[in-house]
Fold each of these.
Amino acid sequence: MSGAGPVAVRPELADVEPYGAPQLDVPVRLNTNETAEPPPAAFLAELGAAVTDLALHRYPDREAVALRSALAAREGLDADRVWVANGSNEVLLQLLQAYGGPGRRALGLRPGYSMYPELCRTSGTALDLVALGPDGRPDLDAVAAVAAERDPSVVLLANPNNPTGALVGPDVVRSVHDAVRGLVVVDEAYVEFAPDGASVRPLLDELPRLVVSRTFSKAFRLAGLRVGYLLGPAAVMADLRRVRLPYHLDAIAQRAAELALAHEEAFLAHRAATVAERDRVAAALAALPGVVVHPSAANFLLVETPVVDLFDRLLARGVLVRDVAAAVDRPGAVRITIGTRAEDDALLGAVTAVLAADRT
Ligand SMILES: Cc1ncc(COP(=O)(O)O)c(C=O)c1O
């Protein structure tokens, strides 16, 4: 048999556009929730030296023992209850590959993290999204009703949620865990920005089907590294070994994340300032006419404005934010990452100017 034409992609991918936030070369980039400040200089110097000591002609440690042990020590868990992967996106994909897949369903909230539908599709998992309540919190009755009908094998919650910035909290996680038979995944990509005690990590001892994912990409200022991790029952980590690629986390990333943990205090020293800056930007935006700023426990703000093409008009002024109008069903809604003071001032100036232009 011979064919002259191109090979057809899987039918369910035929209409899919490659996903990803725009990476544009503009002066102010506030669209992907990284921390604006680079990692500490001392870490970078140490990393350079550490890389020269790595045996890069050999495959990396498949079990990432040193990094998992360091994370385990930080969390007061045994290392067999810790998993690491190439960003928390890979952690989430591996969870769906292990527990979702064809014939199985996941349950998420809307609005929620935009990658959940992508990861579900890639893993062949059907996804049901339940709208958040009018107060921005999960509607537990609706979650329970959908759970009863669909019997999800995976539930995806983010604490704090993206793009709303709201915390989920332990009571909601307990209720959701009670309402389903599947694995409850709480994605804590931004939890280091939230007040102390906001993590649902303590519930791991109480809820047997709970896992908590985290990342080095946000407060740890290492988005370029691609390291995420998961805390939970050892049996889950054992199942993830069934789906992972043999060397899924490279040696440089493993070593760099270990070093970052050793420098944790320096890495996270920016948190108080970032939170203060978030509150400054939130107050300044909320003072503008017609602008609603959602309370946030993360390093970004969900902002509703009366300007339907705000995203494009900010971009025309060199400020890139995230267009979330469709995600939150509100024209003029954007999600703004907290940047440096200078970047945030540029953002505030641009929003003010666009609003003023609309009023004249
Ligand atoms: C809620 C949430 N989870 C997970 C991630 C993925 O982070 P990474 O793959 O960089 O660890 C992000 C990134 O934006 C996020 O917003």
Amino acid sequence: MIDIDEKIKSLNECENCQDIQIKKFSPLKDLINFEEYDGDYMRCECGKRPLDVVMSHVLKIMIESEIVGEKATLRRNSPVPLSNFYFSSLNPQFIQTKSLILLHQDFTPEVASKLIDEVPEVVCVLKGSPRDVAGQLNKDSPISHFEILEGDDTQINVMRTILGDKIVLVKNQSKHHIEVAMTTEEKLLRLHNFIKNNDIKKATAIDAMCGLGALGIYLLKCGFEKVIFNDINPEMIDALENNLKINDIDGGFEIHNQSFENLDVEHAELCVIDAFPGVDIEEITKKAEEIADNVVII
Ligand SMILES: [Zn+2]
């Protein structure tokens, strides 16, 4: 079992942690001495290093490996830094060891090994662009992943909710588009407001494209008698089953692994749609209106 409170506490810096800001728009080579950088450079006694120092260390290795140019800057050339643990809107500026998941389209296996070996904060190196869709768009499209070059891509997201209860989602970042806890938290709030403002009866609800299950788990926690989870991607169903256990939900749900247009379920009071960005939702909305009294697009 994951000790969430302990993990949340570990995100905080200690009183001796010193922030170092490095200019984002100037070539990194003009700003720091590459010779000085190793895994202990600027490390606090608590084990953490400032984000800018860690990302400079990462970019230094990328420059030396020639996957980015000599004039690379933190702003233009850094990989996407993701944490393997997010709590609400907290975006730590001091990074602990084995906590950073990096995503960049030009990573190679050699660079990935170097990053894992030399930068103690890096836990996983993924190849891909943040603009790529990881997952499955619709029934005609394949399941796509970010490629794991090295390390463990497990990411834990902890959302606060208006109910007081936290929701915990565990995912494999390689199999999922990038969505951090804060974004999911905003969706939960929109869902909460929709139910309240429209006085929705808390009977049966459908989480039509459930993914990791955040919205449906929320519906169960806020009192719906039954939630029908559905996702076309079998990998999301595996993640959902894990997340239901983690959130202590042991009944009141059905799970379907269907394309939404083929979903054949009982009529519901509410259908929640959280589609991939950019997906045409006209057909989806029409289907949703056939099977539920109320439809909310999150
Ligand atoms: Zn410290």
